[in-house]
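User: Please predict the structure of the protein below. I'd like the answer in structure-token form so I can feed it into my own downstream comparison script.

Assistant: Understood. Taking the following sequence of 299 residues as input:
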Amino acid sequence: MKRAFLILLPLLLSLGCKPADEIKRSEAKVSCGLPVAKQGGWVKIPAGSVVLGQDPAFPEEGPTMRVQVNGFEMQAHEVTNREFAAFVAAKAYVTDAEKSLSRTDGGAGSAVFAIGGQGQPGQWKLVPGATWKTPLGPGSTIVGQEDKPVIHVSRQDAKAYAAWAGGRLPHEVEWEYAAQLGLADPANTRSGAYDPQKKPIANTWQGLFPVLDEGKDGFQSTAPVGCFPPSKLGLYDMIGNVWEWTETPFQDGVSGTIKGGSWLCSDNFCGRYRPQARQAQDIDFSSNHIGFRLVRDLP
């Protein structure tokens, strides 16, 4: 079983989850997000500098340093189920989560966090058959969720898509620079998640994690891309919704680095809905709160 999942499981595994039909209802199609005609756009990020690890909240975010960044283009939104489906159809691609079904060591499947019910906390489960097209496991579907970010993708899956789509995964420095430059208040590293009136402006967890997600932002799972206001640069969901893979290894040299936090990030547990936040993730790991977006070099 994958290391990251083993770390999370003892903390969150406890009293049970909503029945499958209730979970599926929480995944119902919603009427917000970017129209299909406006999806697939790119935003030019000008050259400049960024203070990495500004106002560090966790040890892994330091040391603070200023670095120069060349200009590049970044996909305006996270890669969607619709976009990933086109790639799979074109290349007959099979994701790591799908390949894992042949394993016999107990590591088959992908991680699913299911919201708790009746006052019980949610929990992580390694679900055989949870894939990008069956996000809650066998019997679930992405029909009606084509505009949501693709999930249950490993870093290898993301890199394979990037090669097909003519882009690449961002380096962590590029990702953090674009996220920080787009903040409503550059001095407030949390201003991508909440406005000055403490109203959520990104898809995160409001309430006591993992017991209660109050859903004040309108969601208790992933949201279609573009349901929340874009950053000052025109980038959607840089904060929250799903963690995003980067090209950069973590300090251990083995794990990958993910950025941006997700719909599971809360004040009391995660707090990583800031551009500076970073987290290690096994590169062959996938879950229902990790996705990605692409960048490409300027001519």
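That's the full token string. The CA atoms of residues 129 and 196 lie 42 Å apart.
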